[in-house]
Amino acid sequence: ADARPERLLPAVRGALVAIAWIAVGVPLFLATQRSDEGTVFADQRLIVVDPESWLGRAFPLLSHVEEGEQLRRGRWVVVLYRKDCPICREELPRYEARAQQWIRSAEHARIALVEIPAGASSVRDPLPPGSACLHTRLSGANVWVVATPLEVSLVDGWVTHVSRTGDEDDAS
How far apart are alpha carbons 66 and 88 in whole angstroms? Predict the structure, then answer.
């Protein structure tokens, strides 16, 4: 049998992957619980969200949003974003412009920009002072796993629309 190191390397890699899965993946899989609210809790601190399951339900993140009580009344377009997300930084000015237009009309929704905390980020917040949007954030007590930007339309706290791109104008 040929036991050259280059022939053993794939076997060693496979063994390391198996050990990592047993050490990390199995306990994480066993600890993961799906809530009725459309979020997945992998442990007490890590929260993985499943926005597609929110349609027709109460917005499950309301209790985690600072100033979330405001979102329980009226029509809202909620945008979850990260300060260090390049697509988010590109999209946020569009939401600000839309909010400036909509503020004059009672028939349009209000816009809430909800920052997902990114730990010790040194990136400046892309929002201008005096924004027409409600600017708030998710609780920093949790680690949030969600693709951003994420647009969620609410009516009296209930989810009516979810979009990952944030580019649909008919969510008002």
Answer: 20
The Cα–Cα gap between 37 and 124 comes to: 32
- If you average pLDDT over residues 140-159, what whole number do you get? 93
pTM given for the model: 0.71
- CA–CA gap between residue 138 and residue 119 (Å, rounded): 12
CA nearest neighbour of 150 among 61, 75, 73:
61
Q: What are phi and psi of 38, to 5 degrees?
A: 90, 20
Q: DSSP strand E in the chain: where?
A: 33-34, 39-41, 46-49, 75-81, 110-115, 134-137, 143-145, 150-155, 158-163
